[in-house]
Amino acid sequence: MRPTAAALGTPAERSEGREKITGVARYAAEHTPADCAYAWPVAATVARGRVVAVDDSAALALPGVLAVLSPDSSPRLGDAGDPTLAVLQDREVPHRGWYVALAVAETLETARAAAEAVRIEYAAEPHDVTLTADHPGAYTPEVANGGYPALRERGDVDAAFAASPVQVDVSYRVPPLHNHPMEPHAATAYWDSGRLRVHDSSQGSSYVRTALAALFGIPADRITVSCEHVGGGFGSKGTPRPHVVLAVMAALHTGRPVKLSLPRKEMPANVGHRAPTLHRLRLGADAEGTLVSLSHEVTTHTSRVKEFVEQAAVPTRVMYASPHSRTLHRVVALDVPTPSWMRAPGETPGMYALESAMDELAEAVGLDPVELRVRNEPDTEPDSGRPFSSRHLVECLREGARRFGWADRDPRPASRREGALLIGTGVAAATYPVLIMPSAATARVSADGRYLVRVNATDIGTGARTVLGQIAADALGVPSGSVHIEIGNSDLPQASVAGGSSGTASWGWAVHEACTELAARVAAHRGSLPAGGLSADADITEQAQRESPYARHAFGANFAEVQVDTVSGEVRVRRMLGVYAAGRILNPRTARSQFIGGMIMGIGMALMEGSTMDPAFGDFTESDLAAYHVPCHADVTDIQAHWIEEDDRHLNPMGSKGIGEIGVVGTAAAIGNAVHHATGVRQRELPLTPDRVLAPPRQ
Q1: From CA 92, how far away is CA 521, in angstroms rounded?
Q2: pLDDT of 395-430, one tens digit each?
Q3: 106 classed as catalytic
Q4: Is the separation of the CB atoms in 461 and 231 below 8 Å?
Q5: Is the peptide bond before 687 cis (omega within 30 degrees of 0)?
Q6: Whole-angstrom distance, CA of residue 550 vs CA of residue 257
Q7: Which of 290, 319, 649, 680 lies 20 to 30 A from 582 at CA?
Q8: How many CB atoms sit inside 10 A of residue 151's CB?
């Protein structure tokens, strides 16, 4: 019998919370099989070149050292379709930090000492790691990340801009950003009765298993990859990374279980980063602020190992109506580590630039920034012409303005002062696409009435277990918490990666279908359940791959109040508000946590996060948490998240949209716009550190 209160929509506590706070939950590096050895990688110290010689004699002489693998002694790997995984296969060094050897020893300390004792001789070659908008090597790729066309044009942008009464032509710079999850990338690999078992810190164990099968020539059905608990990823664990390849390589070579945890300082060079993006926006409008022409051109870098193009102009194709539009991506292949996914790739840097430019347009027109956005609200998705499945951006802006007290704002820049502090407020919009990925699930009820749902989802700290349990309980008509959820193992039914804010929508759809079918079978069954119980399975591959006639996106509005110290240049966020339209909110507790977490990450992007590519040495100078600063509790004093309930029936059976990433998208722009309102000076390069705030802005 269905309970009186539905499981979905309730603020259920995290089902694995007790395991985590008591230390029962085990992460990849916390699995220690008997006779376990430890590995430590050796990173290249030249920006580009070739390994001439490897001298491992001193390393091998250390007591407890089992092996030193190098391009001359490591196993030959197959092709997994990702050249960043082809470690220790040749002597080429494509960038600083590329792994050129691996030490394996009885203890972690000995492995580290052995790695430091390995002597590598290089033939260094000239390198180029500096991104500029006019770099002679810049080219237009066929597609940007996600398969989006690199160039989209409508109308005659240049002529329309030239004829516009109001023109904004501005450039913005976003530096390289690093994911830095709390749990560094780690893997434990060992053989167990002819089966390769791997515990990996990954956002998708099935993808790791597929890559390992191709690389090592092992049938996939003889490999089990577990990612039961993952301490964050933010995209850096969205694809297999070199650490797991090295761990398996060492286990095969030594015949011992091997554990490898990447030193945090080496993560920026080996697990991806958000590439720097140089933006030029040209907004042409009539005297009332209605857009006539909209151009967003982005230049970014990729590595010479693998092309990855941050799709930073793509959100501009979604946001505002304009009869003339151009969105273009250009990329330069440099001698740098390969960039990759980082929370809300494309949308995060792209919306910072677009929403900052919209604020500049509002000032040029003399129109309130909220009203400017409302005035340019499209009827259909500008790029495709498709109707939106739901779009409540205007409602988010209006509700956010009401809650924030926007009407009381004095629009004049630098008009509010408290002693040495200048106070300002800013607003920005946010968007993120609704993505659905192929996934499968099974549901089972045992003879004694216990329910088990199995799906190879990955919980990277988002509360996926909890919400999937609520979806299952709702479909089964049983109390919330009465269903056991099994996730995080490649032997379970295939599921998509925990990325793109697609997890709950994809896995949850499969779970809903399996549990709905099981509920029907239970209802049709007469008498006691059979000894083997009843089961049902579902696979939503066909539904996920079916093209929707609707443009499906989540939207939001961010409001920020900042104080700028005129003496020190320090910027602090006094309060921040986010209001979102993200479909049906399945669990208010976990949803609020995700929205707030995204906004906190956006505070870091706006005020402190940023990395520098050293032109002489070819590496990131901010390579650890001592130099790469992230927000702490003292940086977040008043932050609130709210949402507008949406009834969107063009998504999935739950009516949900992804929420893991949209919180970060509009935050940096809202803060940057607030800093301009406080000071009257427009900063166009992040982060807004004191040295930049006190110095004349870059034009």
Answers
A1: 59
A2: 999 999 999 999 999 999 999 999 999 999 999 999
A3: no
A4: yes
A5: yes
A6: 50
A7: 290
A8: 17
